[in-house]
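Example (one chain per record):
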Amino acid sequence: MPRIGSDIVIRNGTIIDGTGATEFKCDIEINDGIIVAMGVNLPRGVNEIDAENKIVTPGFIDIHTHYDAQATWSNRMTPSSWNGVTTVMIGNCGVGFAPCKPDDREKLVELMEGVEDIPEPVLTEGLPWNWETFDEYLDALDKKSFDVDIVTQVPHAAIRVFVMGNRGVNREDATSEDRAQMAKLVEDGIRAGALGFSTSRTINHRTVSGAFTPTLGAAEKELIEISKAVGSVGAGWVQVISDFDDPTKEIGLLERVAVTSGRPMTITVLQRNDRPELWREIMSEISRINANGAKIVGQILTRPTGVLLGFHISLNPFMACDAWKEIEGLSQNKKFNKLKTPSFKERMLKEPQGEHLMRTRVTEWDKIFPLESPPNYEPNPKNSIAFQARLRGCSPEELAYDMLLENDGTSLLYRPLSNYADGNLDAVFEMINNPNSLIGLGDGGAHVGVLTDASAITYLLTHWARDRTRGSKISMPMAIKKLTSDNANAIGLADRGVIKVGKKADINVINFSKLNINSPEVMYDLPAGGRRLVQRVDGFDATIVSGQLVSEFGVSTEALPGRLVRGVRF
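Predicted structure:
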């Protein structure tokens, strides 16, 4: 008897199946959350999707997000889910909210506020704190439903504070007893279902008061003991972000950690402005280490890491002026009225800048650009504020000020911070094509006042597979493979990432010709009315999670089939 009444049948689409294979035409039948048939003349489904002239891909796997808090108060992991993402990994960079003793909650909030730019009032109001242990945190997520699947990692900073308290916050060396307790907590976390352990070794990660993250400079003995615990379970990976100021020493340490654990490791790889060739050295060392039997991959971003500057968000070029400090707390309308007053503008342009951690970065005018619409993340150096000011015969400060006043004071400037040392994205092209790289670092859910890089997922398709004019592009099958099966396999999710009979029905139907990343906008939809930057995307005609339609033409449906996905439990 022929099958009838399948949940969804996608017809007439061009399939890019996530394996890297050439595209092909095929219909897809979905039932009970699984792809049950592929071919032609399939039985009619309850829900028919016509994908004529559209591409059909697996759902995307976003391996680097910070929805650790958002997942406790919201069912929707936007903006990642707007970008065709059907699985997100949280607990990155060693930060998170579990395990956590009641007396340490403020410590972790302060750390997350500083490291990931999520305002304290948002966290204080939004976090339910209905957990103490990591397992209890997973149980709390397990009771919720989402528009994506969520997988977790055990965060080093939370573990360190849980075991060592203020000694951990102050970055004191762990005792043998401390190390044993931390290792046991990490092992327990992975046995409870976490897909890995994460840590941070960068000076860029600080609390809101400027203190370094508790894991910076953690001794090798501590990392080795924890890595042994990960290896003892035989599951999960180790995620690391580091500055590599002494690359030989740091690579040597990470190699020993990887070899000790016997588990995969992923490390952040970016092109630094001050050492633009360092990333090549790191990737070369990764290749050497892998040839010797370990498994390390570089995690990369598809565009520059950068910040947005505006009078209505967290950063602007004049934020260290006393004049700005007088108005920064005003409503946007009152602030705009003050900013457009000639006398106030004169003050802003002439007053000396005070001290601010970001002051020099947001006034390097040859590295700051107007953010075009749609946004251009590979801007020509001739479009910089410095170059354009010279053409116009004015100061870069004046030009920047006038540009930021446009659109009632809501225009934005763009400051690439890494991956742009050469004035183009050629280095990123090489990173993408490196066999030891994974696409990540979009930071969805974090840095909500300065960037919105969750759309870097879509950027791989729009810029690298379609629109780039300043250099080489990549093929669409390769782009989809990078976003799907490569990431799924890396974190141990064998049930998704490809379109194949028997696989989980996480699928996107994309109008590729209309795929577009819109300009960032500000929303006030976080707890306590908190502000965040978001970026809408056009062209995702349908996103399916576990066989249910969660988004149609960019509009969310009522379906929330996403769940916490635990790894192998022992």
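Caption: The CA atoms of residues 109 and 142 lie 22 Å apart.
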